[in-house]
């Protein structure tokens, strides 16, 4: 027997989910056309005022604004017919350095939708989808999604949580940032510690090209460079610090990568592994954050790992226990959780 009350509750949830899904493209448009930032900078505006300020068509804009108000993304005053981006929503849609800036997450969701035609056949074959073959600019969206977390936590909280690492960086350490993508993590560290030497490695040449471009555009510090290299064969020895940001679970052979990190470190070196926050049991992750990460894992992380040798496919919700297994399999004697956020865990591994 169908419980009518439960059915109505579930349909209500579905309407919320469909409304969120329908918002993906509209948020992207609002960001690309500068609509959120214009409202943030200029305050409450009518359709005509915003259309003139942003240089867009009024009729399209009226529909977009109406959707944003119905979604609770904007506030609407019937008396003045003006739309406002409240300060809380501005933190999500307009302020790029905000710790809760989520426009990159919306871009990633759009890329996930584009990826379905690549991933759907893989459900039958068990084969992978290489990182460079993902739909659209997946790596662009992922870089934009992770940037606020790195901006707000990396230098201020994560590095200080590691034993003795900040002192080494201040005096002049040698650092390798593996799987650096578009290089935001490497750049934040290089700017904060001018006496240290930083090199960002990624196996995807397109990402390294973008990292170098970003560095030039944002005033690349002289202690920073980017090179193509995989987690199992990047060059160099005697690193004081090796960092992996949200990438170990994407690798085909994470244990092999751990072993290479161990060989590349000084005897007293540190490996910092930043991974999506997750419990060790499925029931620990049945929450809004786990929901997003399992979606990303299905559409991006597992396919990426399965496209590489070994194909361990840890997934974005591997959990600390599984990550410890991989890290210790590479020859590390000590692993501890040094820090965490609602989205990430930071593990410190030592030989």
Question: What does this entry look like structurally?
Answer:
The chain is of the alpha/beta class and 351 residues long. It folds into 2 domains: 4-92, Arc Repressor Mutant, subunit A (Orthogonal Bundle), CATH 1.10.10.10; 148-292 and 309-350, Vaccinia Virus protein VP39 (Rossmann fold, 3-Layer(aba) Sandwich), CATH 3.40.50. It is built from 13 helices and 9 strands. The protein has helices at 4-32, 35-42, 47-54, 58-71, 87-93, 103-125, 138-158, 165-171, 184-192, 205-217, 254-264, 288-306, 320-329, and strands at residues 75-77, 82-84, 174-178, 197-202, 224-228, 239-245, 265-276, 334-340, 344-350. Strands 5-4-3-6-7-9-8 form a 7-stranded mixed beta sheet, with helices on both faces. It has a two-stranded antiparallel ribbon with strand order 1-2. It is globular and about 70 Å long.
Low-pLDDT segments: none
SSE order: HHHHEEHHHHEHEHEEHEHHEE
The geometry reads as globular
Tally of separate domains:
2
CATH fourth-tier homologous superfamily of the largest domain: Vaccinia Virus protein VP39
Mean pLDDT metric: 95
Largest sheet: 7 strands, mixed
Approximately how much beta-strand content do the residues carry? 15-25%
If you consult CATH, what is the topology of the largest domain?
A: Rossmann fold
């Amino acid at each position: 027997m169908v419980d009518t009350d439960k059915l109505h509750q579930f349909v209500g949830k579905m309407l919320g989910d469909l409304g969120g899904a329908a918002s993906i493209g509209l948020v992207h448009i609002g960001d690309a056309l500068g609509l959120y930032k214009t409202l943030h900078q200029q305050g409450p505006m009518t359709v005509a005022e915003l259309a003139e300020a942003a240089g867009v068509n009024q009729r399209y804009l009226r529909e977009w604004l109406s959707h944003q108000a119905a979604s609770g993304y904007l506030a609407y005053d019937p008396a003045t017919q003006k739309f406002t981006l409240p300060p809380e929503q501005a933190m999500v849609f307009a302020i790029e350095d905000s710790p809760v800036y989520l426009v990159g997450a919306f871009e990633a969701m759009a890329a996930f939708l584009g990826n379905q035609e690549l991933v759907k056949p893989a459900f039958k074959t068990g084969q992978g989808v290489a990182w460079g073959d993902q739909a659209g600019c997946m790596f662009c969206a992922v870089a934009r999604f992770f940037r606020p977390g790195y901006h707000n936590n990396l230098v201020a909280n994560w590095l200080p949580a590691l034993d003795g690492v900040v002192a080494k960086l201040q005096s002049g350490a040698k650092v390798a940032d593996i799987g650096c993508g578009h290089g935001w993590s490497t750049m934040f560290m290089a700017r904060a510690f001018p006496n240290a030497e930083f090199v960002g490695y990624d196996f995807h040449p397109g990402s390294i090209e973008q990292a170098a471009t970003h560095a030039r555009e944002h005033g690349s510090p002289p202690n920073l460079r980017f090179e193509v290299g995989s987690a199992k064969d990047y060059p160099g020895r005697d690193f004081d610090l090796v960092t992996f940001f949200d990438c170990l679970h994407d690798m085909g052979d994470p244990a092999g990568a751990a072993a290479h990190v161990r060989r590349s470190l000084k005897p007293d070196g540190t490996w910092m592994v930043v991974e999506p926050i997750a419990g060790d049991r499925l029931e620990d992750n049945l929450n809004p954050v786990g929901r997003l990460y399992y979606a990303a894992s299905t559409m991006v992380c597992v396919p990426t790992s399965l496209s590489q040798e070994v194909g361990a496919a840890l997934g974005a919700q591997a959990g600390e226990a599984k990550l410890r297994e991989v890290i210790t399999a590479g020859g590390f004697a000590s692993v501890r959780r040094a820090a965490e956020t609602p989205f990430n865990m930071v593990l410190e591994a030592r030989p």
